Amino acid sequence: MKRIAFKTLGCRVNLFETDALASRFKAGGYEVVDSGEADIFVVNTCTVTNTSDQKCRQAIHQIRRKHPEALMVVTGCMVNHRKEELIESGVADYVIDNERKSAIFDIVDEHFKKGHSDPEGYDRDLFSYQPAYDTFHTRSLIKIHDGCNNFCSYCIIPMVRGRSTSRPAKDIYENIKSVVDHGFKEIVLTGVNMGRYHDGETNFETLVEHIINIKGDFRIRVSSIEPDQFSDRFLELFQHEKLAPHMHICLQSGSEDTLKRMHRFYTAAQFREMCQRIKVFRPDFNLTTDIIVGFPGEIEETFKESCDFAREIGFSHIHTFKYSKRTGTKAAVMPDQVPEAVKTQRSEVMRAISLENKLKYFDMMKGKTQQLLIERIDAKGVARGYGENYVPIQIQGDGLDKNSFIEVKLNEIINPENEEKMTFIGKFLKKSIPNNCLYQEKL
User: What whole-number distance in Å separates Cα of residue 329 and Cα of residue 201?
Assistant: First the structure.
């Protein structure tokens, strides 16, 4: 039995694709290992920033040094961006672009059966991944969309992921039914620009509504999404217990001037109004975001506008990026590039705001009840996971089972000085009643 290991960098789309590939290899008779000795290594790369490229190069070369005889497959966005560089380096046996990533099992299997394989002979297909049953995560990631048509001035994603493409709705429903039947309790919808999902008469709003109608004891979480003007009908869906009241909505800047130069498709005022509408439907709704600091032309005044906006909205987490120049984008040739030291200083300020906001959100949630999905239980019997509002919770008690829902009360906050480790101590209330009802019956 050949052993295969995976290294994944970047977004949840990559995580979905790695999970699907790992599950396919396991079903095909390969042993999937976390690390250590393996016969095959697959590195699923990211290229969103220069730092991402650097981390990918380090991972690839480190694996090659430690495992010179292993079969090395490099795939993902860095391949689409720097394919010739990777081929010329000779570090990988196969360099496979995103469009043929789903064929990696067939390519590797053919290699061991025939001694060689030609990735270019396989069809391009962004969605032909089989349902992932044996994954690295308790949640099941479901890819619904790929590519982007926005062409923001700083972003390279349209060049490496291609144009906006939606997965057929029927395939999504069947994928979800399959993993729910297999026992997954949380479904995470993921894609490059999910809000632009469109398949025939089905847009993102109707897709989510139809997913709520799927029978089974599970909940749905929306991962990173662009700030489209969500309708009131869509926001009403969050009143249903199957749809988790949390979205990571990408702001990028709270400055109107900076948003214009980023070529974003909304204003800060529109973003504010959208967040206010969300809070009307669910006052405890958990909003998290991305913010870029040090964008070309960002001065102290416009950076302060971003800081003030982040505090006003109260994002419970801000994924802070230092602007990274990407060749081929409009921002790369803009004047008034911000010095790296200034980017670093501003990044620290924004992270401090993120910690401040998280403490305020946790204080507001203290004493509330949450449906905790137990993701792991350690040797001491401490169970950990997330509530529906995407707050981390740990609880200790007898009779707790992994991959089950329990109702808990949020009590003590631990590690309040560390945003990454901040967690609630939960008090067990009761085991949750299976959520098998249809959406129409619940409203």
Answer: 33
> Percentage of the chain with pLDDT > 70?
98
The burial of 141, by beta-carbon neighbours within 10 Å (0-12 exposed, 13-18 middle, 19 or more buried), is given as buried
> What is the CATH number for 346?
3.80.30.20
Q: What are phi and psi of 334, to 5 degrees?
A: -70, 150
156-186 pLDDT tens trace:
999 999 999 999 999 999 999 999 999 999 9
User: What total number of domains does the chain contain?
Assistant: 3
User: Of the candidates 49, 46, 50, which has an alpha carbon nearest to the alpha carbon of residue 12?
Assistant: 46
Q: Cα separation of 198 and 195, whole Å?
A: 9
- d(Cα 13, Cα 146) in Å, to the nearest integer? 8
The pLDDT-based confidence of 114 (bands split at 50, 70, 90) is very high
Q: Are residues 209 and 339 in the same domain?
A: yes
DSSP for 14-78? Answer: HHHHHHHHHHHHHHTTPEEESSSS-SEEEEEE--SSHHHHHHHHHHHHHHHHH-TTSEEEEEEHH
Give yes or no for a contact between 190 and 13, defined as CB atoms under 8 angstroms apart: yes
Per-residue HEC secondary structure of 61-79 comes to: HHHHHHCCCCEEEEEEHHH
pLDDT at 229 over 90: no
Residues in the chain: 443
In a domain, 131, yes or no: no
Token pair, residue 185, equals 């309790």
Q: Say yes or no: 361 and 297 in one domain.
A: yes
CA distance 153 to 165: 21
Give the residue from 15, 72, 9 showing the smallest Cα distance to 45.
9
How far, in Å, CA of 253 to CA of 4, rounded?
41
CATH code, 39: 3.40.50.12160
What is the residue range of 278's domain? 140-365
